[in-house]
Amino acid sequence: MADVATRTIDTAGMGADVSIRSLVKRYGPVTAVEDISLAVASGEFLSVLGPSGSGKTTVLMCLAGFEIPSAGSLHIGGREVTALPPNRREIGVIFQRYALFPHMSVRDNVRFPLKMRGMARRQAEAVVEEALATVRLSGFGDRLPAQLSGGQQQRVALARAISFRPPLLLMDEPLSALDKKLREEMQAEIKDLQRRLGLTVIFVTHDQEEALTMSDRIAVMSHGRLEQVGTPEEIYGNPATSFVARFVGETNILPGIVHRRSGQDGTVALDGGGEIAVPLPAERRLAEGSAAEVMLRPEHVAVMPAGSGVNGLAARLVGHSFAGATVALTFEAAGGQRLVARRPARELAGLAPGAEVVLVPEAGQARCFARTGQGA
Amino acid sequence: MSALAAGDRRRLSGPASLMLVAPFVLVLIAVFCWPILQLLSASLFDPDFTLRHYEQVLTSEFTLGVFLRTFRVSFLVACFALVVGYPVAALMRSLPPMGAAIVGACVLIPLWTSVLVRSFAWTVLLQRNGVVNEALQGLGITSGPLSFLYNEAAVVIAQGHVMLPFMIMPIYQSLRAIPDELPRAALSLGASRTAVFREVIWPLSRPGVVAGFLMVFIVTLGAFVTPALIGGPRSLMLATLISGEITENLNWPLGAALSAVLLVMVMLLIGLFSRFLRFGRVEM
Amino acid sequence: MNVTTRLPHPAIAAARLAGILGVLFLLIPTLIVVPISVGPDKYLHFPPRGFSLEWYGTLIGDPGWMRAALFSLQIAVLVTLLSTALGTAAALALTRGRLHGARALSVAVLAPIVAPNIVVAVAMYLFFSRLGMSGSLVAFVLAHTVLATPYVVITVSAALAAADPDLELAAMSLGASRSRAFVHATLPLILPGVIAGAVFAFVVSFDEAVVSFFLSSVRDKTLPRKIFEELDYDVSPVVAAVSTVLTFLSVGLLGLAAVLRRRAPRAPATKA
Predict the structure, then answer these.
(1) What is the mean predicted confidence (pLDDT) over A208-234?
(2) B1 falls in which pLDDT band (50, 70, 90)?
């Protein structure tokens, strides 16, 4: 019993580092995860972001030990856990639908992991109260899960998962069942808890906004592969692939042909007419004349009156939608190409549908990718 | 009761509903309720009002012994069905849909097979020149035929077999209602496989266990065919005793009194445990 | 390099084995009866030492067995018709009607299958004996109808509960009369349930052993009563042949009913 107590103190504030090495998971002929390698630092908050079926949950289930990898290895806190049964991994797992034991009170739910570790009842009671206080649910111990709201249930699940002080917390779309306002509250709460306890968190989500707000780093997955790993700023501002650019944030997609390339810069001739200057880093192997897609975030499109003599794409305003501080303006350019610009709301003044304008991409913000089949 | 509001056009009118339900209710009154009342009166009038036959039922050491045995056998049958049935329900729950459907069919086939056919099969298996005896002798384990038939153990096995679907189905239903995340959550929280069963699966499947156990127990109290064919005179059960009083001893009043006691016992049990029971759901 | 296939936990392996043994136990009678019925021996041997349809021949050639089978069939057909009509009507009234005490009534309707068989059988025996009707076709049909109708009520009620009552309202709003709305909007949806109920009723009557045991006379007996007598007297392979036929009939019919109920048309899923 004593060593349980000392261990909880030892690991408090010490998140474990995680290393996923060449992970492969196949279900019969279907490959769910294809050769993923990823290192997560101690105390880091990493989101695994991807659409459903991208393999993100499978990665989490392998880490938790509910699925056995087909190849590769997993290491947590320097210890290999690839084939270790889930009950010996010391990982807190938060499930999409909370997975509270419906026949146990809140207190017994939170006490469960301590009971499984043989902690004496009185000592466990103290830990349970502390964990409930951490999630601001003191006094709810005697209720049954069914008597709590969704957000409260989620907090009980959190209290239960941290009560035994695991160095790693895995969360599988934990907030998807909550409404928007509650979700934002919980995001802040989880983030705060992670910082206070120094936990390493791997957080699976399909919600790009959630990933951008909460994460230290984001790993974007698609079709069982890693598309990009980076800070939210990198993922948003400098997407590595056209998939990442499309999946994270709003974006305009302009098909064209690489017209000219010199050093790190180039221009793309758009299919609908007009040209656009793009940075072309060396790793983008886009030769002159190859089919390309230019991605432009709506907030990087400036709107100028027609005939102001500025170089840009001639377009006509076809609609707008007001979103408080900003307004999304939809334009139609030559060749029927649609573009959205997001501008401060005051800029709408004097623009009526049908107005002729010139759209000017902000210098250096357009991104260019090779055109693949999926964009068609 | 708002669904009964007079303006609800989705409902049939009062007179129409009455006309639809009346024919069966009349048949029920004439061929079910009236005969049972007649039976009760046969136990109380001989020819004048008397409690003599009830006195005989409740004081005769012989009939009390039969009652006791009926309760004991019913309890053992329920235990047997639980021990055999729970793993089957768990297996069904753990299999993918196709496998679960196959096991489900294996559970339902005996339910749909005549009780007589099943008693016949057990007779063939357990009789002196039956399959089990032949096998034991063939393997040199026993030298002569043993008597497996006509005792309580045989009744427990055969009646347990008859009742198994009534045990498996409610347990399976309550196991199916447990989402996969719960055992997974328990594992992630450090529970061993046995602890997952003890702390999560078993408590959550208990409603099904209770329903199945009560159902098997109650139905077996009045079971006739299997105990009559598989059980011997030394393992006489209530239904067989009633049948004997009526068809062999022609002692209608005593048979009627025994029937009345059985009926009241069963009704009491059903009334007491009605919230756990799920009659009429097994075939689903 | 270091991928291990985790073997199932011993406790899980043991539980699975117990489950498989349980399934085998469930199948024992079927696995015994069928081979015996096609074996050539007068005495029962397992496994059979050859293949023969001799016992089926004996069965068909025996007027006693044939009489009992025909009598049971006659009863079962009449019971099916009667209890399907009574049960469907009752189910409609109980699920879609306006009745005082509908809840109590739907419990009362189940009484015949909840009450101990032996008590029901003895009561009916007394009732029909006093009327001098014991052993008559009418007595059997009435008795079995009481026992079979609850199953029809259960299956049809379930089908009705799954059919959206608003469909009838929609049909009426489109100009259909109440009865036409029922025939066109509700009946097609519950028809599989009604047919399944009819199949249950047929099997309940055809397999019914306890009431038949008491109501049968020396001359007029049902198939189950005949098997009962044979079993009490001698275990002959002819019984195995009857049992096989009976098993295949019941399992086939009820399998059909199960398929029908699965195939019942359902309302398109609406997103919550």
Answers:
(1) 94
(2) very low
| Mean local confidence (pLDDT), B106-114 | 83
The structure tokens listed for B252 are 């209608």
Gap between the Cα atoms of A20 and A41, Å rounded: 12
Q: Which residues of C touch A73 (CB under 8 A)?
A: 1-3
Q: pLDDT digit string (tens) for A303-358?
A: 888 877 778 888 899 988 888 888 899 999 887 888 999 988 887 777 888 888 88
What local confidence, expressed as pLDDT, does residue C46 receive?
Answer: 60
For chain A, the maximum distance between any two Cα atoms, rounded to a whole number of angstroms, is: 80
**Residues of B in Cβ contact (< 8 Å) with A85:** 187
User: Complex ipTM, two decimals?
Assistant: 0.86
Domain ranges of chain A: 18-242, 253-370
- B57 touches B257 (CB < 8 A): yes
Distance from the B246 Cα atom to the nearest Cα atom in chain C, whole angstroms? 8
From chain C, the residues in CB contact with A23 under 8 A are: none
Cα A153 to Cα A172: distance, rounded to the nearest angstrom: 15
Structure tokens at A227: 């598309």
**Topology of the domain covering A253-370:** OB fold (Dihydrolipoamide Acetyltransferase, E2P) (2.40.50)
- Tokens at residue A138, please? 């003191």
Element (H, E) at A314: strand A313-323
Chain A's closest residue to B207, CA to CA, is A103
- Look at A68 and C6 and tell me if their CB atoms are within 8 Å: yes
CATH tag for A18-242 (out of 3.30.70.120, 3.40.1440.10, 3.40.50.300, 3.40.47.10): 3.40.50.300
**In chain C, positions 31-90, which contact chain B (CB-CB < 8 Å)?**
32-33, 36, 43-46, 85-87, 89-90
Residue with tokens 């010996």: A88
Q: Which residue has the tokens 């000392």?
A: A6
Helices and strands: H and E segment counts in chain A: 9, 20
Question: H-type helices in chain C, by residue range?
Answer: 10-37, 54-61, 63-96, 102-109, 111-114, 117-130, 137-162, 166-173, 178-181, 187-207, 210-215, 223-233, 237-263
- For the entire predicted model, the pTM comes to 0.84
Nearest C-alpha neighbor of B3 from the set C95, C223, C231, A261: C95
pLDDT confidence of residue B189: 95
| Burial (CB count <10 Å: 0-12, 13-18, 19+), residue A149 | exposed
- Is B60-282 CATH 1.10.3720.10? yes
- List A76's β-bridge partners, or say none: A18, A79
